[in-house]
Amino acid sequence: MPFVVDASMAASWILPDEQSEIAILWQKRLILGGAIAPLIWWYEVRNLLLMAERRSRIDGEYIEIACRLLEDYPIAIADRPEAGTLMQLARHHDLTIYDAAYLELALRMKMPLATFDKALAKAAKAERVPQIP
What we know:
Structural class: alpha/beta
Strand content: 5-15%
Distance between the termini: 17 Å
Number of domains: 1
Radius of gyration: 14 Å
Number of strands: 4
Helix content: 55-70%
Strand order of the largest sheet: 3-2-1-4
CATH superfamily: 5'-nuclease
Largest sheet: 4 strands, parallel
CATH architecture: 3-Layer(aba) Sandwich
Number of helices: 7
């Protein structure tokens, strides 16, 4: 079954020092059923790779490999969100617009959300969006 993936989850798949058992479960689920993400995900994942390089956690060669891996994953990029809902979710849950985009997509698509972001996970729980514990 497809799910909505955020950048924090993708980071755990591609950064060697952020891997976890929960991330591996979501990764297996991704391979079997695919995922979807808002457009901001594409930028956020590449930015986190760049920040990791700047902090000497990885090098440029690793970034190229990680980007190729991400391109091979069955992750679709969603259409533009419903603006009113997006703003309402961001305000109600005190989220950034970026994080609200993941929540709005999960609600709109009626899909579970994969995140390690605590504020986003709390908002998803409040909105009754399923997550793997």
